[in-house]
Amino acid sequence: MSTPIVVIGSLNYDLVACAPRIPVVGETLVGERFFEEPGGKGANQAYAAARLGGRVRMLGRVGDDIYGRRMRDNLAQAGCEVSGLLAIPQCTSGIALIFVAETGANSIVIVPGANDRFLPGDIARQEPELAGAGVALLQLENPLPTVEAAARAARRAGARVVLDPAPAQPLPDSLLEQVDVLTPNETEAAILDGRPPSRLAPEDAAPIARRLRQRGARAVVVKLGEQGCLLLEDGAPELLAAPAVQAVDTTAAGDVFNAALAVGLSEGLDLAAACRFANRAAALSVTRYGAQACAPERLEVESFHR
Ligand code: RIB
Q1: Each residue of 226-249: pLDDT tens digit?
Q2: Helix or strand or coil: residue 161?
Q3: pLDDT tens-place string over residues 55-76
């Protein structure tokens, strides 16, 4: 029997333009495709975890608008419990403007809207909704004090706290000390380590992961894209390879990874096994467009590259 997963995080409505490449400053490009869909790192993680069979509850804030209603309905249809997802009157929902290049790479601008109105006092009021959770999934698209309050509340409830430090920003040790599994991608790991954003070789990821553990995170999983992930717990760092795929859209690959990681942990897998499951789910997700539409079903992941 799995334990419940609580996602405390963001929801954005994604407006996506696919073009040959990401435009440079001042450039106008002709795109090949446009689509819109519910997104946001928190909601993507909740949606993907539910598709993978997790028992998911989402806490967050949307605007009192059509986007907010669509985002809520989409999560509910996937089987998420959404009573902790509240609409703020006279506030717009979070919006993300996304460019996807032919290589599958993306760039994103978010306008947080209601996500910025999710405050630490709200976490205190909603703390009873964390009771019984086995895993809490957090990201950084809500105010940082809210994320820290959520991590502390999740800990008090006995949940394992998985923090996706995205979008990247420097983090205080007081937050890292509340984290059981920290899951930066390469650029986020570099920024957390006080470096300029850059892609990392696995041999560079290991010392950064060590420093993040010294600062308080109990385990660090550096997501290395097509190279898989680097896991550091108590022992030596372990590089866990991802299946090779042809990527069309990498949007939300990190969210699918975290969702699958949480589902694995909620079912009692150890961290390395949960990372392997997450590698497969994330690899499948980049073969499809979208942030939630790309989330694979459980059976697909189980039968993929075993
Ligand atoms: O991680 C992908 C997500 O980042 C998108 O869905 C977008 O909304 C931004 O939050």
Answers
A1: 999 999 999 999 999 999 999 999
A2: strand
A3: 999 999 999 999 999 999 999 9
Q: Would you state the structure tokens that stand for residue 111, as one six-digit string?
A: 């306008």
If you measure from the C-alpha of residue 10 to the centroid of ligand 1, how many angstroms do you get, rounded to a whole number? 9
Q: What is the residue extent of each domain of the chain? A: 5-11+40-91+115-302
Class of domain 5-11+40-91+115-302: alpha beta
Helix (H) or strand (E) holding 221: strand 219-223
Ligand 1 midpoint to CA 251 (Å)? 7
pLDDT digits (tens, 9 = 90+) for 92-139: 999 999 999 999 899 999 999 999 999 999 999 999 999 999 999 999
CB 34 within 8 A of CB 165: no
Residues forming a β-bridge with 110: 96
Q: Which residues are catalytic?
A: 255
H or E element at residue 208: helix 202-214
Protein residue with least CA distance to atom 8, ligand 1: 40
Output the CA–CA distances (angstroms, integers) from residue 81 to 8, 57, 62, 151, 186, in the order listed: 12, 5, 15, 20, 32
